[in-house]
Amino acid sequence: MEVEVKLRLPDAAAHQRLSDALSPFHLRTHLQENLFFDGADSELSTHFAVSRIRFYDGDSRCVLSLKARASLVDGVSRVEEVEEDIDPALGRACVAEPWRLGSLSASSRIMGRVKDEFGIGGEGEGKKGSSFVCLGGFRNVRAVYGWKEGLMLELDETNYDFGTSYELECETGEPEKAKEMLEGFLSEKGVEYSYSKASKFAVFRAGKLLP
Fold this sequence. Notes:
Elements: E1 2-9, H1 12-22, E2 26-39, H2 43-46, E3 49-56, E4 61-73, E5 76-85, H3 88-96, H4 109-118, E6 132-146, E7 152-160, E8 163-171, H5 175-188, E9 194-195, H6 200-206
């Protein structure tokens, strides 16, 4: 179970203020491209699951993931997630021809699970109701910081076709403590924020920035 604190920033100015405040802790910045997949008959979304391929910094790295049973309450996200690194060229081939994801069911524990639990993939190209479709996606710029008490912070600028959102995330085993620390830091630095109400994927599927 992945547990994260997610705080939404209202605009680019707040994002810049927080970026400046966190600059002494900066470790690296990634350019990420996120693309999502479902079955031809919405087998994943029907069961509140989603598959994603994420490319880092062009095609320097590619990660396949499966998320399920997500919840987001008072700025704390909980989701079951498994990830695997795959060859970026293979990832691009799956984006171009999503049915190829099904051919990974023998070598990928994620695609094997998707085949067994959701009945998608493993039948090859052109098999109606058994293949994958690409839903599209979004890009984001993610700055990573090594902050206090070993907390790793991720400051995101997410670019959708319909607008840009800004968010601070922190994966932690003690979400209430981390949230209290982050809220105190943001207030001290004069950075406005609110609790995130939806995941980036939910915003993408809604087709609009949420208030």
